[in-house]
Amino acid sequence: MESFVANLLPIVLSASIIGIIVSIWLAWEVLKHPEGNKKVQEVSQAIREGANAYLKRQFKTIAPIVVILTFFLYFTGKTPQLAIGRAGAFLLGSFFSALVGTIGMNIATRANARTATLANKGFGEALSLAFKAGATTGMLTVGLGLLGATLIYWYYGNLATEVLVGFGFGGSLLALFMRVGGGIYTKAADVGADLVGKVEKNIPEDDPRNAAVIADQVGDNVGDCAGMAADLFESYEVTLVAAMILGGATFGLPGVLFPLAVRALGVGTSILGIFSVNAKGKTEIKEGINAILKAFGVSTIVSTIGFFILSDLIASDPRLAIATTTGIVLSGIIFLLTDLATGDHAPVKDIVKQSQTGPATVILSGLVGGFSSTVWQILAIAITIIVSFMIFRGDPTAAAYGVALAGMGMLTTTGLIVSMDSFGPIADNAQGISELSGIKGKSLSILNKLDAIGNTTKATTKGFAIASAVVAAVSLFESYLTDTGLSGINISHPEVFVGFLIGGAIPFLFSSLTIKAVSDSCFAVINEVRRQFKEIPGLMKGTQKPDYARVVDLTTKAALSSLATPALVAIIVPILVGFLLKAEALGGFLAGTILTGQLLAVFMANTGAAWDNAKKMVEEGQMGGKGSDSHKATVVGDTVGDPLKDTSGPAVNPLIKVMNLVAILVAPIVVATNTLSAVHWIIIVFAIILLSYFISQSQKSPTLAKGS
To answer: DSSP secondary structure string, 9-77?
Structure first.
């Protein structure tokens, strides 16, 4: 056992490198396939150029904020060594998060055309290629995440937990930007294309006459591929950071090494799961979904066995394995609950039935299912936390470590989870390319099936991402209490209760800002698409092409102009609460944010997905099929749900983790500051004015773009 522990860091480092190598190999496997005919290549190239242009502008927009926060991180270090380490780790976390999103998106925008082309060979071949492309992002996520954490721990040793907070914050901040910006972009284009194309012009979803269709395809990549990859990357990092902080405080060296070993195990079981996806001979949607779910099952079973082996080798304490296993069980429960709320079950079937009476009842029935789904998911998370506490009964710090280990268990197979999510937009893009390039017959039927599977995997992984974010936030909350020396939080204290109320309100403000941003961006897209239909002669007849580039450019500018305010809310508000109301009130603030953040995120994600799937059921022939009044009613429901499920809901995940990490970073300064000086008050007043200005600017009504 001692020799295993002594050699553990080289083993973990090797696992991270293997993950990156597998990612490179998967990318090569994808790119060796032919891209297709000239028309397919043209459409794919337009999507890729639009996606890269968006990311390039996004990184230019956020670069100054990253530089400013690097200096801020430097001044939170207790010693010069820690100051440099924390600031450097922040930059590394930011870079890795951006790299995962960028590479993943670029592989996806190259795999879409190849998937569309390979569909003529068969369903299984196309599914396998699209999943391998998604797995490229998945393995890069776990490889880079584990590499960064291992190198930091190797260099800083016992001080590593102080530095790793900066690494987690960098990943979380970039994920927040990429989730918010990508979510705004994708839904502005999607909603704009649907409302003008489907509802007003009564043309198909990916009709080449619609000027917003390329922007819509671009949005799938910047929102789901880049955004989701960055989101799960930071969850992966944050749970590891929290587990190492709490493990060091409770079990010493074994408590720090066990989470690293679990992450290394996860690299191996994710690879096993990815290569267990057997699509050969499959021809139907259900068979394709089952092939992916079976691979997930294999991965989780092997992971669970590994937990017990590692806990025995490292700590000789089976409680560590049991606590980690509760996270694996929770992930399975979340998948089931998400499917029940958004799949072919009673809530969605009720929406389809209600579509006979118009969009109002579609929306009402969707709200019913969405509200109720939040209850079951939060109960599942609550039971998991209680079980984790019971495993370490009598020791509050060890119990908090148990919660962190549950989060570790949930995210053990992150490589496979990201693969499942990235598969969705690749399949969606492939189907869109087939429509835009005129592919007909067997291939089109196969791509429609792949798109349906992708919608299922995207919905379930969103539920997983939300649950993992909440468990990660609870772990960070316990880390905050450890760092501040607080034994607990007394909610009866007025300042603590006020902090709790403010924290509970922030996810609502954040959601308001992001939905408003989608609405404003969509306003611009709709008017531009209408203008082109009106002013370009022959467009509706198909004799002339729309100006796709103008809509891509317009959507990019609109999305990026909305980034600053949500980010400032996430960073500034916790700092203000900490200095004005002190450390215990900041703890109450975090508790309020976690509670309402989870409820809102699940509600928005599940409600939007249910409306989307109800629309698809109608399009498949129920209640009159496409073009019927029921179809138009469900299109309205889907349109309302789009920003909920793909923008605001997923963006709450990084929000609650960013605010928890900001609290941990400023905690030592808040505790050490007994009286606010004149300098403190100047900074506080400036921060309040700055935040108020940006919020007020975001509430202004949109104006028509020139020429619209």
So the answer is: HHHHHHHHHHHHHHHHHHHHHHHTS---SHHHHHHHHHHHHHHHHHHHHHHHHHHHHHHHHHHHHHTT-
d(CA 116, CA 434): 6
The model's pTM: 0.88
Residues near 674 by beta carbon (within 8 Å), at least 6 away in sequence:
none
Distance (Å, whole) CA 420 – CA 564: 30
134 Cβ contact partners less than 8 Å away, ≥ 6 residues apart: 108, 418, 419, 420, 421, 422, 423, 424, 426
Amino acid at 422: S
If one counts every other C-beta atom within 10 angstroms of the C-beta of residue 688, the result is: 13
Cβ neighbours around 701 below 10 Å, total = 7
Q: pLDDT for 394-419, tens place per residue? A: 677 788 888 889 989 988 988 888 88
Look at the chain and report how many structural domains it folds into.
1
204: left (phi over 0), alpha (psi -120 to 50) or beta: beta
One-letter-per-residue 3-state SS of 79-100:
CHHHHHHHHHHHHHHHHHHHHH
The dihedral region occupied by 700, where left means phi > 0, alpha psi between -120 and 50, and beta the remainder, is beta
CB-count burial class (<10 Å; 0-12, 13-18, 19+) for 707: exposed
Domain assignment present for 705:
no
- Element of type H or E holding 656: helix 649-672
List, in order, residues 6 or more apart from 90 with CB less than 8 Å away. Answer: 69, 70, 73, 166, 167, 169, 170
Spell out the residues 6+ positions from residue 11 whose beta carbon is closer than 8 angstroms to its own.
Answer: 261, 264
Helix (H) or strand (E) holding 388: helix 359-391
Q: What is the DSSP string of 161-174?
A: HHHHHHHHHHHHHH
Looking at the domain assignment, is residue 681 inside a domain? yes
Cα angle for residues 632, 635, 637 (degrees, 5° grid): 115
The answer to whether residue 516 sits within a structural domain is yes
Question: Which amino acid appears at position 350 of this protein?
Answer: D
Over residues 617-673, the pLDDT tens digits come to: 898 888 988 888 898 899 889 889 988 988 898 888 889 888 988 998 888 889 888
DSSP 224: I
Confidence of residue 248 (pLDDT cuts 50, 70, 90): confident
**Domain ranges, residue 654:** 2-698
Burial class (CB in 10 A: 0-12, 13-18, 19+), 34: exposed
Within-domain flag for 127: yes
**Euclidean distance between CA atoms 367 and 350, whole angstroms:** 11
Q: Which of 28-32, 111-115, 240-244, 293-297 has the lowest mean pLDDT?
A: 240-244
